[in-house]
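Q: How would the structure tokens look for this protein?
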Amino acid sequence: MKITSAEFLKSAFDEADWPRDSIPEIAFLGRSNVGKSSLMNSLLGVRGLARTSSTPGRTQALNFFVINRKFRFVDLPGYGYARAPKAVKQKWSAAADDYLAKREQLVLSIHIVDSRHEPTKHDLQLQDWLKHYQRPNLIVATKSDKLSNNELRRNIARLIQVFASTDPIIYSATSGRGRVELWSAIEKSLKH
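A: Here is the predicted structure in token form.
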């Protein structure tokens, strides 16, 4: 896909602040520090649109980005490590749950996992949730460039077994591996 424009639209903590139009949306989900922002920036071929941080849990609201003035990327708060008060974490979780359960514009949820690590209980809960609500989704295994081919093959086989799913898209924001495959999946979801 040719990216002609990619702009930050808004951050929203509450449903009342979500965009009200019918533009289709692609959601990016995953635990804190899994590389959501890096993946989005590499997909779009821009630096710094989605802010990256070495501190997990920086994304605390739903961040909406308008792409080519035709669809949106939505960066959801990460789950897991975030160093934040429990009440704040619960608010993030509620915002993400509400969005995933209610949002009619959502055409694809991209569940991002770190190819270097075993999926967490939160990863498994998210997959169960997406299946329960019959949300179209795919799994993207990031940071693939940080593993040898043998380690990557072994870890991807484990992911397939744990999630009882089809092959995840293997992705590297550094090398661009998986970019074409992921764009293909996104374009397909936008046509439905």
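Confidence is low (pLDDT under 50) at residues 53-58.

The domain at 6-191 is CATH 3.40.50.300 (Rossmann fold).

Upvote if useful.
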